[in-house]
Amino acid sequence: MAKYKLEYLWLDGYQPVRNIRGKTQIKEFASFPKLEELPDWGFDGSSTRQAPGGSSDCVLKPVAVYPDSTRKNGALVMCEVYNADGTPHDSNDRATILDDSDTWFGFEQEYFLYQDGRPLGFPEHGYPSPQGPYYTGVGYNNVGDIARQIVEEHLDICLDAGINHEGINAEVAKGQWEFQIFGKGSKKAADEIWVARYILERLCEKYCVQVEYHCKPLGPTDWNGSGMHCNFSTKYMREVGGEPYFLALMAQFEKNCAEHIAVYGPDNHMRLTGLHETQSIDQFSWGIADRGASIRVPHSFKKNGWKGYLEDRRPNSQGNPYQIASRVLKTISEVPKP
Ligand code: ADP
Ligand code: MN
Ligand code: MN
Ligand code: MN
Ligand code: MN
Question: Ligand 1: which of 102, 180, 193 to mutate, most ligand atoms within 8 Å of CB?
Answer without folding.
Answer: 180
